[in-house]
Amino acid sequence: MLILPPAPYYIKGELETEWLQAAGLGSLAAPFQAGLEVTEAQLGEAVRPLPREQAAAVRRRVRRLNRTVRRKKAATRARKPDIRDVFRDLENSSGSEPRSRSATPDSLDSLPSGGSGSPPTEWADAATPPDFVDSYPTGTHAPIARTPSAPSGRRARLSPPAPNSPPRPGHELFKPNELHWADIASNTEGIELLGYQRYGTVQGPRIGKERINGSILKENDVFMKHAPVSRTKSAASSQPLSFEHKFNLDRQMLEHDEEWPEHDSTVDIESLVESQFKKLQPLLWLELTALFDKFSLPFHKRKPPKKKRKEDGAVFGVALETLLRKDMIIWEETWSSVPAIIRTLIEALRDRTRDEGLLRVPGNKHKIESLCQLIEQQWYSERGGVQSALSRATGHDLAAVFKRLLRALPQPPLTQELARLFYHTYALSGSTQGRALNLLVLLLPAEQRATLREILRLVREIVEMSDTNKMSEHNVAMIIAPALFPPSLLLKPTDSLETQLATAANSCHVTEALMRWNDQLWTVPASLLAASQRKPHQHRRNNHT
């Protein structure tokens, strides 16, 4: 498994600053970088040409920046006192004798000892303080007042000892007592205890007896009779914890057939020139943010690692950009944004879409290793020989090589920065989910977008032959999802098994949605394209002569 380095953390305000710059509103980020708040006049001027939902998204980010600036200013004003300031007067204290830095404070010099360090003489005749443990059981003590939460029918938690009772050992004196009604609120002073229920669905290991606030609960205690705890739909008590159960429940709730919202969107993203795409990109970012905010989805773009991972191999484990650069240098191929090795494997798999269990059935381990070594060592020196070997290989061996190549990419096709945003679209459904995926796909770099397009075309052709190859849309999605959503980007080592299963099921949902909306993902929304081509509004001045 490819282990990616942990992403650096964003400092306060950095995420919002990068978002404003990506949305083409860098003028709103400049005051924050200078330690100032964005004024309402500056904000109003920037959001005036934007639609209402996009303007609301911008205002939310600017409010966060202003709040961060105010907190920084308040923290600067309220400086914590320095410990050196407390004892600074020791250096300049009066007295004929020299004093060291470890001397006592001046407040102790006024004691009867005269600063000699010995106890005063009048303290010598005082009686020795009695030992607390020895004197506790003897004598007459006033009864301890009950707290309002302790009913009269129950004894208080700290009841006085009986007269003439034998002294208790010291190790038992401070031993925690049993749990009583005084520890938990009960029916008193207008408060009625209706029931007791333990919160949460996952309980940790039980060590000995149940405890509340450090006290032991007895088996016959009324508080041990728990109310039934409701479970989530993904972990129902009557169903086993499984991937298929989680996937089927979520699919019934989220899957809806809807039409694409904009039928007049016919412009393909690949047909736009660089200058047009630069004008369109901020609008795509604003529209995506407004959509996520509308449905209260987390909008956190992963920060790319500053240190680039070293690429040791020639093909496997090499970034798409590096593979394309090699294709251009060695073969002068500039007409495609998909690396030649990926195109070759996809073409070979297209001829084998009728093979039963394609992508699912494992191939021959020895032949797979031989093909991988052949590609790694001879692809850029003997391309024709490698292509001949791939044409003779079985479909299952080719599929295994193809999956290994995709999973070894240092940057997945959905990129480290946008993979989490793709993943969170599982909470959407129908054309709303398709619109979010469409905006995310258009924001991908050209190499990742073109490679994703070829992958989705291949898997759709495999699904179209499902009557022959027995590979349904769900089966293909389960196999392709780990290549699009690497677990190292979505999970932590400490995540529970239920979290891992839910993440895998949600990743399959998004992968199926990508396959289902494949034809519309690459078209530019007509409304955003028209807005990017609209000239900025200019204020005219009337010149009177």
TrEMBL record:
Pfam families: RhoGAP (PF00620). SUPFAM superfamilies: GTPase activation domain, GAP. Residues 67-78 have a biased composition (Basic residues). Residues 318-522 form the Rho-GAP domain. Residues 79-91 have a biased composition (Basic and acidic residues). One of its GO terms (cellular component) is cytoplasm. GO terms for biological process: regulation of actin filament polymerization; regulation of small GTPase mediated signal transduction; signal transduction. It comes from the Eukaryota. Keywords: GTPase activation. Residues 92-104 have a biased composition (Polar residues). Residues 67-174 are annotated as: Disordered. GO terms for molecular function: GTPase activator activity. This is Rho-GAP domain-containing protein. It comes from Pieris brassicae (White butterfly). The lineage of its organism: Eukaryota, Metazoa, Ecdysozoa, Arthropoda, Hexapoda.
